[in-house]
């Protein structure tokens, strides 16, 4: 019995060491798994944001082209551009679901505002806007909401540094033809 008592501290040391090793391994594995999951969801969130932004920008581009065609009274290209804008609008609707699923609240709110601003421009291009809508103001609003979306998306993804706003720069580049110019 005294031999067992002499060995007891060493046996307890082995048991405590084994338990500590198992616990440390479990904690390290859990931490590694959480990092991998976070990276995986960040990649998917980035993909969702990029696909959504591309689809919204495509609708925006076609709507602006159609608005200019309306002002210049060109009919043939208008129908083709309308069809392409409708296809882009379907893509935008599909990609919106990924943003809703993966985005954080700030990014979803900013994406919704940008989507609504571009929808107003698309309605104008289709001739469906209410009285009082001005294309130049609508484009300025769309560019500002785009900047807010990119800022929110970058924050959501943990991208360091601030986004470079484009709305002021784009305002100087706008080539908007009105019915009076045509």
Describe this structure in words.
The protein is built from five helices and no strands. It is mainly α and 182 residues long. The termini are far apart. Mean pLDDT is 83; it is low at 177-182.
Q: What is the topological layout?
A:
Blueprint: H1 2-72, H2 76-102, H3 105-126, H4 135-157, H5 167-171
Name the features.
mainly alpha, 182 residues, 5 helices, rod-shaped
Summarize the structure.
It contains five helices and no strands.
Q: Characterize the largest beta sheet: strand count, sense, and whether it forms a barrel.
A: none
* Overall body shape: rod-shaped
How many DSSP-defined strands?
0
Cα-atom radius of gyration: 28 Å
The chain-level structural class is: mainly alpha
Q: Name the average pLDDT.
A: 83
What is the helix fraction of residues, given as a range? Answer: over 70%
Strand content: under 5%
Q: Regions with pLDDT < 50 over 5+ consecutive residues?
A: 177-182
Number of helices: 5
Distance from first to last alpha carbon: 108 Å
- Reading the helices and strands in chain order gives HHHHH
